[in-house]
Amino acid sequence: MQGPDAPPSDAPLPAAPPSEVLVALSGWGRTAPTGARVTSPATTEAVVAALRAAGERGVVARGLGRSYGDAAQNAGGSVLDMTALSAIRSIDARRGIVDCESGVSLDRLMRLLLPLGWFVPVTPGTRQVTVGGAIGADVHGKNHHVSGGFSRHVRSLELLTADGRVRTLTPADDPELFWATAGGMGLTGVVLSAQIQLLAVQTSLISVDTERAVDLDDLMARLDATDHRYRYSVAWIDLLARGASLGRAVLTRGDHAPLDQLGPRQLRSPLGFRTAGLPAVPRGIPGGLLSAATVGAFNEFWYRRAPRERRGQLQSIPTFFHPLDGLPEWNRIYGPGGFLQYQFVVPYGEEAALRRIVETIARHRCPAFLAVLKRFGEGDPGWLSFPSPGWTLALDIPAGLPGLGRLLDGLDQEVLAAGGRVYLAKDSRLRPDALAPMYPRLDDFRALRARIDPGNRFTSDLARRLSL
Amino acid sequence: MKNALGQPQSLLLLGGSSEIGLATARRLVQGRTRRVHLAGRPSPALTAAAAELTAMGAEVSVHDFDAAALDTHETVLGKVFAEGDIDAVLLAFGVLGDQLKDEQDPMAAAAVGQVNYLGAVTSALVSAQALRRQGHGSLIVLSSVAGERARRANFIYGSTKAGLDAFAQGLGDSLQGTGVHVMVVRPGFVRGRMTEGRPEAPMATTPEAVAEAILVGLQRGSETVWAPGALRVVMSGVRHLPRPVYRRLAV
Ligand SMILES: Cc1cc2nc3c(=O)[nH]c(=O)nc-3n(C[C@H](O)[C@H](O)[C@H](O)COP(=O)(O)OP(=O)(O)OC[C@H]3O[C@@H](n4cnc5c(N)ncnc54)[C@H](O)[C@@H]3O)c2cc1C
Ligand SMILES: NC(=O)c1ccc[n+]([C@@H]2O[C@H](COP(=O)([O-])OP(=O)(O)OC[C@H]3O[C@@H](n4cnc5c(N)ncnc54)[C@H](OP(=O)(O)O)[C@@H]3O)[C@@H](O)[C@H]2O)c1
User: Fold this and answer.
1) Are A110 and A39 in contact (CB under 8 A)?
2) If you take atom 3 of ligand 2, which residue's CA is the nearest one?
3) One Pfam annotation, family name (chain A) (predicted)?
4) Does the ipTM exceed 0.90?
């Protein structure tokens, strides 16, 4: 059969004109996809040209898309996939400084630098982020209480601003633009390259102490008492445990192992970087697989499996820092509805607020896999940098959970009242008017953007949603 | 922008005084929606709707819009979209007609089609084009179970909804990968002024319940929403009944 009455399979597909070809992009949570024109500039000149060519809906840089929400997407406008801008310009192996383009991933830096005895100064819970994304969100790691955020270790960076100029910024000479860019979510311009100060290590192994905490009080007491002894510290907390077990957790803390802690076999290649991975999670997993019952059973198993206490265990970097990277595309297990991450910080002294929040989440029976609790150190100078002294909690939740909007709006209120804030790199649903009280330098940020980018060349879905 | 929970910040309601439309608008304004455009024929009901949503804290503007005036849709809606992004368009206008009378008056029957089908086609196309340009947004189309299988009692109305439903499904498919989401909503019998004085069908529901189903559909990114949800199963059975059996059941 031919013509207009042909069955669907025979229907001719109309070809869209090329200028109209859009790609739907979303963040790691796979919620709220929007269409944009995506280009992958591989040189500085190409980035400048792409900025010029961007239409009235502006442009934003995108790294590896590991932010959970809508930070690295720009509906109806242009998105620059920065991963092609990935040259390593130089490595100073004596002083531990790498100069690289912004599309280079931390994974690549680790593979390159570990054999030379250097490690990235800060790594988030995944290595699959770019240097540009690490600066854009001013990411933190398990060493925040010791080392601060990523951008503190950036000695200088090149920034393409809306006027088409490439500026080299250092924290000393250009504190305003530098610290507006660090944590500025790509809205001050495109970071083209950065010089990063690295950390010297003797081995590629981490010496890890593991202990269990039976409840939230026990957990906070342990973290309070001994965090300062460790470079890296984090606790995995079971938010489905209730009653007396509320807030039970497993603490894993450690530091880079010195040479003399290695056995003969490990000494054969003390700086080797090995990753073991499973095959990627397949597409097309239906939603609703994760319920409070299935996730609760997993959490239970995981808690019981952890040793009550164990000292000085040698773990690989992927095992200690990036356990989820071993399961590529793990975000697909949430099905087509996607998921979101809620991460907030409340100041020290607001432990009661933290407890109320943990109780609320537990009461709501959110099917949340192990959440992460950590103590932050001093706040970072980035105007919109997230970390500030206090307790930070991060949990993943399926986006289709009934009542989720109201639950999280309520938690925001609790966080706000305690003087805390939520993390923009994870956010996908905050109330716009809650942002200013959380980020006191927001007005400065907006004013600077109005000054250096009056035509609003740089924008994103996040910027539109929250009027950044 | 819509957020991860499908909550829009701005809404365009086509059929600005529709009961289902307003029940949905109220719920959305209680969420993230601040900017509301009501498009409809001027009437006290439309003015009252604007006042009510304003009192709830929304910034409301009202636009003269006649679904039957097909050649005005580009201009009227073009102006609305020129004011800024629209995160959700709710196509809620529609007329039930008077089946028995309209069977005797072909032009009256055509008027039902003019609003429910043709008016929806033109306004949905104008909206879809604008949403596509902005790269995001949901177009929510109020279809009806009446379009699922023609009934003796309302096949003029039912056939317009069948056409609209097929059109909206195809439009949704054509917008795959553009960031634009089309959601087809199929309510059953909804108690309200449209159905006033008519015998209630089984599984009757309310405008508020339909609104709730729309919000859940937005949160899940659904392409099809039945209200109540159980109609999905019921109608998949009804669809396969042999004609003589169906004729005896349906009124
Ligand atoms: C499993 C997992 C664990 C995580 N753990 C942590 C953690 O422990 N700590 C933490 O802080 N974060 C964590 N994150 C979040 C992640 O580190 C940040 O979202 C990071 O920004 C992602 O980098 P990306 O290269 O994917 O950037 P994208 O997600 O693509 O972009 C993030 C932001 O940076 C901007 N950007 C990207 N490249 C540039 C550039 N070249 N110039 C200017 N702006 C740019 C984008 O516009 C956007 O606003 C985690 C994420 C996942 C998925
Ligand atoms: N009620 C039900 O049982 C039911 C069931 C399934 C589907 N639906 C569908 O759901 C939608 C909303 O229905 P409802 O229950 O909310 O009924 P409603 O309150 O009667 O709303 C219908 C709306 O359509 C508007 N309208 C009619 N003709 C128009 C025109 N030419 N131009 C502009 N607007 C016009 C009406 O505006 P005026 O005030 O100007 O007339 C009114 O706002 C309709 O599409 C309906 O078909 C309803």
Assistant:
1) no
2) B190
3) FAD_binding_4
4) yes
